[in-house]
Amino acid sequence: MTLTSFVLVLVAALMHALWNAMAKRGRDKFLFLWCSASIATLFLLPAIVVDGIRGALPSRGWMYVFLSIVIHVVYFYALGRAYKATDYSLVYPLARGLGVGLTCIGAYYLFDEKLSVAGIAGICLIVSGILVVGAFGRTLHDSIQPKVGLFWPLLTGLLIGFYSINDKAGVGHFSPLTFAAIFCLGSMLILAPVALRQKQSLSEEWRVNRKMILLAAVCNLGAYPLVLFAFQMAKTGYVVAGREMSIIFSVLIGTIWLKESRLAGRLTGAAAILCGVILIAFS
After folding, report:
1. How far apart are CA 213 and CA 201, in angstroms?
2. How many Å apart are CA 93 and CA 269, to the nearest integer?
3. What pLDDT is attached to residue 74?
4. What's the pLDDT tens digit per position in 159-201?
5. What is the largest CA-CA distance in the chain?
6. C-beta of residue 177 within 8 angstroms of C-beta of residue 231
7. Under a CB-based contact definition with an 8 Å cutoff, are residues 262 and 136 in contact?
8. What is the pLDDT of residue 235?
């Protein structure tokens, strides 16, 4: 993994952890996510215009854009439901961990991406660390209602694996910013009727959390486009695994900002993730 791709992934990880934590603080998680993602999309739109003027919009590869839109629509809905169902410190590790595992398997079979021994060891450490963080993130409520607590995070992780593989293929046809702009625009437009149907709740969400929504939009704007750029420079499994540095950030954010407990146990898992990322970075 090159230094440039590693730095891109690290910055993306921090931004991703931040906007997810902000979404958890929202009154209505889905409306918060829709508002912040829609604002971020507005800033990405010039990329479509510029590529259109340059004649750089390809005639091939639109299938990947369509699939990305569909997957991200379901992903945003599932993520919002997951944060309603249970803790940030449980949702985030489980979803990201499952996403890493599925992406690495998919990249091996679809893109013939063979990983080094150090890379495989690093991914195993990351997945193990994520599971430890998730175990210490569980609450009494989750143990009483395990199906409610686990279904949405696991579905979110499944969707992360799907869109990571699909988007890796997509940036082989489009520039990362244009690809992100098109699938974000499509996703937000499809979800718009659901959000706008709740006018009173939407207005209240904006009134109470507009500063947080705008800050989340800034983080959203950088988080995934940076990953798409990294996809062009490094193997899919390494990029997705390295991005899980966000778990370490989420442990600190969940403890310091969201006042969630069990820091010591989750730091053990975070340390395993850090070791795994270091192995990947130097593999």
Report:
1. 14
2. 10
3. 92
4. 988 988 998 888 888 888 899 889 889 999 999 999 999 999 9
5. 57
6. no
7. yes
8. 79
Token output for 265: 């146990």
Cβ neighbours around 112 below 10 Å, total? 7
pLDDT along the chain (283 residues), means of 10: 82 85 83 91 89 81 92 88 76 74 78 78 79 60 50 87 89 88 91 92 92 91 84 79 73 68 67 73 62
Residues 6 or more apart whose CB falls under 8 angstroms from that of 266 comprise 89, 132, 133, 136, 137, 251, 254, 255
Backbone angles phi, psi at 141, to 5 degrees: -60, -40
Q: Which single residue is written with the structure tokens 């979110």?
A: 156
The domain segmentation of the chain, as residue ranges, is: 3-281
pLDDT at 282: 63
pLDDT at res. 109: 79
**pTM check: above 0.85:** no
If DSSP states are collapsed to H, E and C, what string results for the chain? Answer: CCHHHHHHHHHHHHHHHHHHHHHHHCCCHHHHHHHHHHHHHHHHHHHHHHHHHHCCCCCCCHHHHHHHHHHHHHHHHHHHHHHHHCCHHHHHHHHHHHHHHHHHHHHHHHHCCCCCHHHHHHHHHHHHHHHHHHHHHCCHHHHHCHHHHHHHHHHHHHHHHHHHHHHHHHCCCCCHHHHHHHHHHHHHHHHHHHHHCCHHHHHHHHHHHHHHHHHHHHHHHHHHHHHHHHHCCCCHHHHHHHCCHHHHHHHHHHHHCCCCCCHHHHHHHHHHHHHHHHHHHCC
Residue 99, amino acid: G
Q: Please name the residue that has the structure tokens 């600190």.
A: 252
